[in-house]
Amino acid sequence: MTQLLDPAPAFVAGPGYAFDNSSDHPVAQFACLAAAYDPFTIERLSATGVGEGWHCLEIGAGNGSVARWLADRVGPTGRVLATDLDIRRIPSHPGLVAERHDIVHDPLPQAAFDLIHARLVLQHLPERRAVLARLLTALRPGGWLQIDEFDVSYGPVLLAPDAGSAELYERFLAAKARLFDAAGGRAVWGRECPAQLREAGFTDLDPQPRVVLWQAGHPGLELLVSHLDGLRERLLAQGMTESQLDEVRTVMRHPEFRAVSPVVYSVHARRPR
Fold first, then answer.
1. Do 150 and 36 meet the contact criterion of CB atoms below 8 Å apart?
2. How far apart are CA 200 and CA 271, in angstroms?
3. Adjacent-strand bridge partners of 159
4. Looking at the whole model, is its pTM more than 0.85?
5. Can you list the alpha helix ranges (DSSP code H) found in the chain?
6. Phi, psi at 145, each rounded to 5°
7. Which helix (DSSP H) or strand (DSSP E) does residue 269 occupy?
8. Per-residue pLDDT of the chain (273 residues; tens, 9 = 90+)
């Protein structure tokens, strides 16, 4: 197929991104993300009216689960461009083009998309305000943007085997939030996103928050378990010990454990007509 965007260099995990997607850890991470958050993401995408003939951009497509859904939705006359720094895990699918692209540095076509979606991408980027300005111009007038992001400041333990287990889980969450912030991310950006979209010139803002109950086996909780491997060295640098990381894994898989998920905000916005 014709190259739609200028190619980005091969993926190298940089100081502004906490995860190393060149390793094997993202396989489990992407599977958990899809299982935990695709239903809400797709519910919200459906509300934009996306359908036959639309041109869509999926930023940070991961394993391509949302991009494939979009490709089926827009049909043979539409087009979905799925981008990421590492596109090896995006499978071939009718109507879907996958291209390596750095949303911070690489150009985007002007007024080219009816819908742009990004999930859990911009919270990692110190340049997120500049990216929002670029996304505005990449949309066609009246086009939709959907940003799905966390606010991890909320997520209390409701039940744990004992008080020490609850405290250890909360210590783990705090260490993870610190390492994201140290890498230039913003762990609470979900709640700040709507105001920054308005400042960037978007209209028709519609932020929708959602939390769910987590217990052993929930894919959202298993996503945190996958972080114990993918972020292990960085968690140790934030003061966690090897034994604590092993123990918190056991806590999160304990049949009595119950916690509230962090808030995920799905924010709709539009480019003015």
1. no
2. 10
3. 258
4. yes
5. 25-47, 65-74, 128-138, 163-182, 189-200, 219-230, 232-237, 242-252
6. -120, 135
7. strand 263-270
8. 345 665 544 433 444 455 555 555 678 899 999 999 999 999 999 999 999 999 999 999 999 999 999 999 999 999 999 999 999 999 999 999 999 999 999 999 999 999 999 999 999 999 999 999 999 999 999 999 999 999 999 999 999 999 999 999 999 999 999 999 998 999 999 999 999 999 999 999 999 999 999 999 999 999 999 999 999 999 999 999 999 999 999 999 999 999 999 999 999 999 999
Q: Return the closest-CA partner of residue 23 out of 84, 100, 86.
A: 86
Tokens of 32: 């958990």
**Sequence-separated (6 or more) residues with CB below 8 Å from residue 1:** 97
Select from 110, 131, 113, 112 the least CA-distant residue to 121.
Answer: 131
- Residue type present at position 124: H
